[in-house]
Amino acid sequence: MKLIGSTASPYVRKVRVVMAEKKLDYRFQEENVWSEETAISTANPLGKVPCLVMEGGEAVFDSRVIVEYLDTLSPVGKLIPGTGRERAEVKTWEALADGVLDAGVLARLEATWAGRQDGERSQAWMARQLGKVRAGLQAMSQGLGDKPYCSGIHLSLSDIAVGCALGWLEFRFPQIAWRTDHPNLARLMDKLMQRQSFIDTKPH
Fold it and tell me: What residue stretches are annotated with the GST C-terminal domain (predicted)?
């Protein structure tokens, strides 16, 4: 398998962490989708990463679809429950973490996209998106409480998704003091950063 992605993307990191935890072999192909020379559309018509290219050339895209597929490839380290409320809980955690990222990415693009002049950037839009980020962090903190992990007593996709979101905020929005505001999230992140899968995929 070949994974097309960027080392700065939190969605790509989520897939890479899952692959590492599942002990799956793959080749990583770095791709800058913002470059004029990018060829990502040959694999994903939406022009986005991550994109997983199978041995037969078929492409699977969207990080949620990819990690769901990857979890079925090996019984090692099951990350998503098969059915029921436990499955819904893990997928909801993933949706919350990805939603925080979606809002953060929109705010960052508004602030940095080269296609706009400074006078064209909407402060109100950025404030709205960062409000979603803060609300999402609050919901994560409340959901985690004093538990060792987001869902149950073992690592799951819930924790991977949350960890990738927190790591990206640390990378791109160091001014958001989520560690101070939510010490339980900081403890979870510190625990995740002891895992080789998180050490090896730190955004840069």
Answer: 83-204
3-class DSSP assignment, residue 150: coil
Spatial separation of the C-alpha atoms in residues 12 and 87, rounded to whole Å? 22
2-70: which CATH number, 3.40.30.10, 3.30.450.40, 3.40.50.300, 1.10.455.10? Answer: 3.40.30.10
- Domain ranges across the chain: 2-70, 84-195
Distance CA 32, CA 162 (A): 24
CATH T-level fold of 84-195: Glutathione S-transferase Yfyf (Class Pi); Chain A, domain 2 (1.20.1050)
Cβ atoms of 26 and 2 closer than 8 Å: yes
A 10 A CB-CB count for 6 gives: 17
pLDDT in tens, the chain (204 residues): 999 999 999 999 999 999 999 999 999 999 999 898 999 999 999 999 999 999 999 999 999 999 999 999 988 899 999 999 999 999 999 999 999 999 999 999 999 999 999 899 999 999 999 999 999 999 999 999 999 999 989 999 999 999 999 999 999 999 999 999 999 999 999 999 999 999 999 999
Query: CA-CA-CA-CA torsion for 69, 74, 80, 83, nearest 10 degrees?
Result: 90
